[in-house]
Amino acid sequence: MKYSLVASLLASSTVVLGELVPVHFTAPSPAHFRDVVRNDTYDFGCRPVAQPTEDGKFRLAAWLSEPQIVELEKFYERDAEISVRRNLVKRAATAPIGTGDRFSSGTVAPKGLGQQASGTTIASILNLNEITSALNALKSVYGVNLLTLPSKTFEGRTQTVGYVGAGTDKSAYHLYLSAGIHARERGGPDNLIYWISDLLAANKAGTGLTYGKKTYTNAQVKSVLAAGIVFFPVVNPDGVAYDQANGNLWRKNRNTKSGSSGSSVGVDLNRNFDFLWNFKKYFSSSEAPASTSPSSEIFYGTAAASEPETKNHVSVYSSFPKIRWFVDIHSAVGDLLYSWGDDDDQTTTSTMNFLNSAYDGKRGPVGDTAYKEYIPFQDLTNVKNVASKMVAAMKAVGGRSYSAQQAVGLYPTSGATDDYAFSRYWQVPGANKVYGYTLEFAPSGNFYPTSAEFNTNILDTNAGFMDWALAAISVGLE
Ligand SMILES: [Zn+2]
Question: Where does the Peptidase M14 domain start and stop, copy by copy (predicted)?
């Protein structure tokens, strides 16, 4: 596809809210997707991922409006190599959002799946108020500590993190997990809340945990808790409230400063962090790791960390200065991403790094030699080691497929939580080294899981969190 044609499609495309249709592109190589991925009015989920198919081709998921699909189908009609198709697999109804408050105003503790009989299910996804109620219940029942974060969201909501396992000394906390930064990725906060609940119930009862075919001993539960866990269940509550009320696959926050209606509202918080945020300066002009257009799903905001939710996420590192391991919970692909996300990794040339202005304008394209991001060899070994353990645990639960890969994959990102976490060591004076991951839980292509998928996600991710934490402990928390 010629870039000029992408530009013409870009000019005529409009995103119609609430009418995004899941589609997939198919092509003989990931490189075939490059031009289409550069169109920042198309929605490729958290980040574009080309996945190999059984017949030796590659598949790229996207969510497009009907006019966009019609345009692209017409364009690709005469191209035998690349195609765009609506996803035609008939799916069961998506899991409902809970009504009311199953935790009775923060008095009844959440009960995860790790201590319940095989086949037990959770009936509905937590509504936004229930996430708050769950935090309060974890405090009242198990003594979990809560910390109110400094900034209010654009719509005025208060944000809270929980921390548990290592007492009141915040410098004894080494694990950090967050969820709900992309509003539509339903079940992310649930995966986290129910896992923490399982750890505390098992700790109290002196028992272990079981997720499908994966089992964990009480000693392992105690070990994970002792590492000190900070958890931020819903990074983007304004977006989640909007998505839960409207069911329109809303991704961004609800900031109206750059655009007051439709798709122009909101910033993609996962492009707003202070890591190569000003991508126009730092990246090759051939790449679109984020977007300057408010109507894009990957709109980067008005400055690095311009958004209150981003500021709050970052403030956690100041409050808990010894965090070593971080995972941001997303969907829907079925993979685990490790550093870096801006370009290919390299372990040999330390001066070729994200802070060196000599490489401005060269970052982003994968497979070239103009720039590759430096990661010390031992760090790369550590992050891959822990990633492989986490992925193996998720696979072992019930046999769903997951893979671990470098975050850049085939296309770069800027301003994301995982790269920001790892970059702090080099760009924030005195900052601890934080290994950052992005988990994209399954199933591929569906932000709204069915009830069965929602429950499988809890089992798979909870085993994944256990092995992530255990492997992190094994590699080192200090
Ligand atoms: Zn996401």
Answer: 124-472
